[in-house]
Design the sequence.
């Protein structure tokens, strides 16, 4: 059984387990992203539990996926304040969910904004990047911003930003790369496969470059 690494050290637990929360809004591909994460972890030999919340997803409402991966996982929902990885495809959503992140966990933020109706109408103000970053850094110093939309646009389709961000996350996890490739190949229709494989690989390279200080 492989072990997860967090903060450069192997987490010593009775049952080695890592909790993920993926947050965004309807239409960004959070459910596909969490499906790929869960199925890839399963293919690598881990036990996995997954739960999604997407009540108003079709109208641009919040979408959240919980994924728990480990040697043995009994419950699909993690405890608030103990999540190891918080991954956000939209900046306001990741700020909203910052309280679930455990101290010293990892936050991966797609540098992308979708203005809620209240902001567009002028009733409320969208937070600045510094405010979002500050909210996350109340929980952890490990905050990583990813230009997922920009990278996906340069690859040919901005809708692939969820896979770019997933690739960035994959670069942090001890799951064999071929497992990610095989899962994406199975899950994505053939006409989109090449683009998404490029998006996954580009995200991973960005993660590895950051880790190596390049």
Sequence:
């Amino acid at each position: 059984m492989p072990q997860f690494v967090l903060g450069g050290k192997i987490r010593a637990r009775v049952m080695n387990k890592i909790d993920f929360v993926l947050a965004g809004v309807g239409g960004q591909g959070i459910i596909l992203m969490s499906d790929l994460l869960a199925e890839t972890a399963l293919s690598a030999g881990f036990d996995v539990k997954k739960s999604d919340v997407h009540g108003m997803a079709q109208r641009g409402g919040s979408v959240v996926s919980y994924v728990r991966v480990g040697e043995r996982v009994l419950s699909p929902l993690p405890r608030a304040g103990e999540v190891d990885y918080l991954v956000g495809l939209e900046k306001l959503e990741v700020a909203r969910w910052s309280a679930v992140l455990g101290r010293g966990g990892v936050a991966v933020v797609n540098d992308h904004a979708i203005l809620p109706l209240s902001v567009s109408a002028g009733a409320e103000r969208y937070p600045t990047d510094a405010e979002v970053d500050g909210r996350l850094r109340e929980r952890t110093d490990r905050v990583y911003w990813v230009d997922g939309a920009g990278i996906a646009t340069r690859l040919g389709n901005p809708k692939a930003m969820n896979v770019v961000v997933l690739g960035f996350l994959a670069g942090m996890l001890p799951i064999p790369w071929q497992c990610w490739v095989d899962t994406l190949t199975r899950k994505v229709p053939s006409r989109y496969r090449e683009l998404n494989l490029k998006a996954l690989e580009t995200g991973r390279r960005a993660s590895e470059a950051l880790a190596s200080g390049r």
